[in-house]
Amino acid sequence: MTNKKGTKLTLQDIKENITLLDTLRPFVIDEKTGKYIMYNPLFDMVKVQALLKDLSDHMQYDMTELDGKMFEYDIDVNEYILFLIIKHYSEMGQLLEGQDFKEHLHIFEGIKRNGMYDKFLMEMFDLTEIMKVQDEIQKRLNLSVQLMKVEAETKSELSKKLRSHMLMVKEKENGKKTVQKPKRP
Predict the structure, then answer these.
(1) Pairwise CA distance, residues 26 & 90, whole Å
(2) Distances (CA, A) of 143 to 100, 137, 149
(3) Percentage of residues in the chain with pLDDT exceeding 70?
(4) Residue 16 in domain
(5) Full-prediction pTM beyond 0.90?
(6) Do the domain assignments include residue 99?
């Protein structure tokens, strides 16, 4: 807590921020032709979930159909995440809507080759917005890893308890059989 005097957050402040999140601005790609794309200057953190779903689906496709060749190295994954940021925070998402992973890869490679990838990342978007999304992705991935560890530990603990219980039941059953009275002739 700081000693500086500030102003209290109001409902109007929140509404203005929401309006900014929904704002699209044009980014001129080519001055000669006037080609532009609309983009969000401020990143809506809710879109991170859709971005992660795309990443998960595309990585799964890569593993099953392409033998993991697309995302072989961490840098490949990082570059693709940046492509998905371009997709989800500009009209690129509308252009790619309904397209399969192969088309995503084709466009991804194409904008890298023609320089649009770097232009979008360096000129269109604010670096702090990109960093916010990457930080959020990292937090969510770390949380997923922690949850998987807890789940594995819980399953292991339950498995141990189940085995212990089964042994006790078996011992009781075996104990009853040995204590039975002998039959009379």
Answers:
(1) 9
(2) 29, 10, 10
(3) 92
(4) no
(5) no
(6) yes
Question: Is residue 41 domain-resident?
Answer: yes
Q: What is the reported pLDDT for 119?
A: 96
Q: Are 70 and 105 in contact (CB under 8 A)?
A: yes
| Alpha carbons 96 and 62: distance in angstroms, whole number | 18
The pLDDT score that the predictor gives to residue 184 is 63
Determine the Cα angle at 68 with ends 65 and 71, to 5°: 125
pLDDT at 185: 60
How many folded domains does the chain comprise? 1
Query: To 10 degrees, the CA torsion angle through 144, 148, 151, 153?
Result: -130
Give the separation between CA 124 and CA 89, rounded to whole angstroms.
10
Query: Rounded to an integer, what distance in angstroms lies between the CA atom of residue 155 and that of residue 162?
Result: 10
Residue 90's CB is within 10 A of a number of other CB atoms, namely 20
From residue 67, give the alpha-carbon distance in Å to each of 24, 70, 99, 100: 38, 8, 21, 17
- Expressed as residue numbers, the domain containing 76 is 21-137
Would you say residue 9 lies in a domain? no
Question: How is residue 183 annotated by DSSP?
Answer: P
Q: What's the Cα-to-Cα distance from 132 to each of 48, 63, 66, 152, 178, rounded to whole Å?
A: 10, 28, 31, 30, 69
Model pLDDT for residues 95-127, shown as the tens digit of each residue: 999 999 899 999 999 999 999 999 999 999 999
